[in-house]
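Q: Could you write out the predicted structure for this multi-component system? I'm mainly interested in how the pieces pack against one another.
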Amino acid sequence: MTDVNTRTQIKRPKKWDHAFSADMAPEQVDALLKREPFASMIPPAPESGADDAKAEKVRVKIRDILLNESRLLNFDKDEIVVRQGDYGATAYFIVSGNVSVLFNVDKSMLGRGQATKKSLWSHFKRVLGNPDTPEARDPEQYDPAGATEDRLQQGVFLQDVPRVIAAQKDDPDEMGPGEIFGEIGALSRSIRSATIIATRETQLLEIKWQGLRDLIQVSKSFRESVDKVYRERSLRSLLLSLDLFQKLPESALQALVDGAEFVSVGKRDWNTNAQDTTPIVNEGDYASALLILRSGFAKKTKAYGHSEYTTSYLSKGDVFGLEEMLRAYQGDDSGNSYRHGIAALGYTDMISLPGSLCDRHLFPHLEAAALDAHAQESTPGDPLEDTKKNQLMDFFVDERFINGTETMLINLDRCTGCDDCVRACASNHDNNPRFIRHGKQFENIMVANACMHCADPVCMIGCPTGAIHRSENGQVVINDNTCIGCQTCANSCPYDNIRMVEIRDRKGEYILDEQMRPINKATKCDLCYDNPVAPACQNACPHDALRRVNLADEEAIKDWLK
Amino acid sequence: MSHEEDFGFRNSQYERPNQKWVCGRQAEGNGCNRGPDGRGQCQTFSECEPYKDGDRWHCNRPFTSGGKCEQGPLADGQCCLSRPPCKPRVSQRTRRGRVVMASGFLGLMVLAALFLAGSDNAFFSPGPLTSGHANIGSCQECHGQASLFPSDHASDPSLLCADCHEFSTAPLQAHNMSFTATAGDLASTGTTATEHECRSCHQEHDGDAALQMAKAGQSCSGCHTEALEFPRQHPAFNNLAARPVALRAIAFDHATHQNRHFPDQDQATFECDQCHEPKASSAGDLALQSFEQSCSDCHQSDVTGEFFDAGLMLWSIPAIDPDRLSGTGELPEAVYDEQAFVSPVQVWLLNKLGSAPEQLEAMVNFDLNPLDTEDFTASQKRQVEYYVKESQALLGSLRNPNDRPTANEPAIEALLAQLSPKQMQTAEAHWFEDQPLPDDAPYYGDLTDGGTFIRGFTLRYRPSGHADPLLKALIEDLVINRANANAVDQLLLQDLLSEEMAGQCGRCHQVDRQVVDANDLWTPTSSASPLTLFSHRPHMPPLADQQCVDCHTIDLEEPQHDFGQMDIQQCGDCHQKGKVENDCLQCHKYHAHPKTDD
Amino acid sequence: MNQTLKRSLKLLVTAAALILVYFVLRHLTRSDFQFNYALGWLLFGCLLFLVCFNWRKKLNFLPIGKAATWAQIHYYLGLLTLGLMFLHIETLWPNGWFERLLFVSLSISLLSGLMGLLVSRIYPPILVKRGPQVLYERIPRYRREVRQQVEDLLTETVRVTKRTSLADFYEAKLEPFLLSQQNFIHHAFDSAAPAHYWRREFQAIRSYLSEGEQKSLDQIEQLTQRKVNLDLNASLYQIMRYWLFVHIPFSYLTLFLAITHGIQIEQFS
């Protein structure tokens, strides 16, 4: 055994080893601090020295955040800043210039690039060259010199802007200096809701959502303003994305937006209270409002015997109470009380549209056929009849697996334990498997400990560097270079799908930091996002026992059960 | 207590079945987290590798093994939790790979054995030989020296069959015959070369049973894809025992004989067994009775009839005007009371024995009428000169017992027998005044039976009866060698077979057909192909109730045929599954001609 | 379409393919020898494709179709090969020692494959029925933990109750059982005999123990049953892994023997 002093050593990775941009100079930051909205974030300097110290601390903190978590970008006229449908982890402050907010722009105009998958040949070479040591890394790749964050393709311009603008339903909103956009997508871990283009020469400050989060923590006023805008913007786009609200005239829509109330249950970082089930509405309650889910999950329940059973679950965009409201609108008394109960699973954010509002602004504009369709009598099933299906649904809901869009389900009636799946996974990841073939079971179905690429990935909440992020195609991926091994994501994941490993060099020895301690990195399934055949596990199972299933989609489970 | 494992990342690490080496303590449940290195060496000697910071030693146990330990390293820098090194084992997958390699190696060994041990290895023989081949000692005798490389390709053993099993014709062609394929889907290809190896039907290396005749059902239907079931799908009998009269060896029309000639002659009824032997042998056809038994009652007079008297001209002295031709030697003076023709036999004999036969070919085209020689051209004169000279020479050698020409064919032999020295001397005595008559010269009076006689300046011959040896020999020779016949041969044959020739051979015997040998020429042969086996015996009493006329019906309607076509469907009455079997080999054989060693 | 129907359909297709091969080859060839020759090459092609399945598994990153699809083709092609083999040799037992070797090797390959398929379909439901899944590699660890826990319980019990009857029982009967994997054949046939055996043993000793000891006994019994379950898992997983130690080597052996056979045929006739 070699002397410990001759081991490979690298600097232990730290949070701001990789600044968002190397170009961010202190002078620029200082200039920004004097402008809105940053200026108002810093509490005013009071007379007494103690408070001044506090204000100074805040100022320094904000400065640090801006220095490390943001960068300045310049855009030309008609250049695309943000595309609707992309995943983004950054928000934008407008420093100077003007931007325009567009909806539903034809995808072909947005210059969307393909995710770079490796070519077959380069992948072949990679597989051949797989190291025989587990978790082998090349220490060179961790050199922090240079920004590593990937970014939207440079300089894609929107063509034929007048036509696009003409195709918009309403005049596009414009935003000017001091305003912020994109924070919704960044903070709520969802896709961008609109396309933003610069209308003239514009300078933007792009800030990572970790920076945003830090700013929110630092400044109360900022938090409030973010909340306010957050609500307004996202609410409107959410409504517009639903069939129900598509054909409303602007006045009706505005009335609904103005009159909407917000119902929030649970903490947004719900991994800490994942098992909580908070009732929102009980069966039989007076049906006073239409509920629309904005994020999180909720389950619909029906009373049965002494307790209740879950009939289905709701996720983002689902509507509750429509049937009852419509019946009431049409004068049928049976629509006066809710026929189901609804309870939040961990955390949920809902919009409540009061009945009177709907009667006045929503229902009159619906077509007769739609009215009838929505008011159909829905007969809930008997929970004791199709026990396997119901129990399975309960299992998924109780364990919160419904969050997963790529849940690994293993049919144990067919799995022989041959490990072909693990081997295939390993060969795609430098000889390191990225999941374990164990997990919670329900009868013959096992939910394996492989990242489910959740619809609402809580693991991303605490990451200090943003190493864990959503790729362009929606997979949740950990950037090995920027991970500092803090274990936050591994701790956060409610399903134990992230694992920490010690990294080694090619010889097999642990790579140590300056204090001779081994360095950890977080690892997890990445859905083989850069490999030609994805996912390798499903492809490799010879008994067709392993499937990646989208549990967030209720229909998929029904398919699986068939 | 349930088995529920703790799935958290602190307690459950990745399982790595892809790794080649496994910690040696794994089997006892004590495996280390790190595992052996790539070369299979244990690399974990203690839980941590203590490092010095200032003057204290610190534990740096990896997080996955539990993180920092409570006690910390010993004072001298050793880890407090040491583990003696294990003996790493290969993973199960690697072990499996080794077993596979071993078995592959074994397979290669067997392959090597095939060639290195020599092709004489009994291990590789696919089965016992048939008992007839028991004397074959080693594989090489048939298979030659086989090796791995194509250039050393052993000769096809089935070509060797013909080395010992001799066939008269075409051993490797289908049915040992050369023909254009008409069977099955080969018909459309029009192939003329139909190679059919011995091993298509006779598989060696399978004991006695297999080498014998293979099962017909499988083998025949390979080419004969249409005649599968008898009699439903079998082709109809075409001219079977009903060949056109004109194609037969003997021009015998059963119909006319039955309905015209016999009644005309007041003969008894027309019975089959009068001419065809009543007792069938196992041979295909019923043997025909002899001329004497069958035909002579009516036809003897034909043989010794009309033209019997004139006989066949064997020799004639040419009458040439001596003044027109110079240097012709001693010849008698022209005799005008008899035409002196050129004897075709003589020309033929000269042709056979002499030189420059092309000179003689021209002779057949003109009569040597002495009066016409005046108009001969120069070349014609030369031809006549040649003819006369050669005749003279031949006559001279014929009469001389010591100077006889040699005969190398039976026809010439027969002819020369008639042209004996005595005969020729006697003839000369008659023809040339200066020749003495030999002692015991034959007397030529009134010859009513066959034999040579002299008339005028010719020597003639009367046949001795049916199947006269000289005529028979001559006709045989001429017919069988018809392919190479020149004008002389053709003229002689034509003469011999003409209706005005003594013996009247040509009246009944038809030679304008495919003739293989002498037997074939005179004796009616079966109309069936050489591939058919048929025996009358099982089809006649007492084994069957058939009479001749049940199958062979005389048909007056059909021109050129005397018999109607036989109906194949009636064969099916007995030839069906369960009764007399109806597979191909019942009636057909594959080898058209018997092997010469049979 | 449910599974039984799908399987029946696939079997039907295989049988139909066999019949089709027979008639097509009969039509195309002129003699028995040619027929068998063509059949021989067809068999070789099938063998190659069957062996390719092993290679496809190593090349998972190539987009050449799911492993499950290849597996289905592999199974039914194997069945077809069984039929073709008997068509090819025309008898049930060939003459000639080398050909017998080839026949035996191929038969072992095919039959072991069939057996492996059966095992792969029958054992997993048994494992589901009999308790939660265990990773095979971790069984030795769990076995050790079980033994450790039993021994800890025992030491504690003996210390508290001052009686050694439990410890004697452990030393005499239980320890050898807990030390290593047992009852392989029983578990291979999913027999409940080992579980019954221990139930009986524990029942027998129960009446001779004091109350405190009995409480420990309950826990020890649970742990023992857990060990029985571990044994079951171990046995079944071993069968599900080690049958391939027969199937794959014999397949490669058959492949090489078939190549030899082919070379022999080409060179000797």
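A: Regarding packing and overall arrangement: Chain C has ten helices and no strands.
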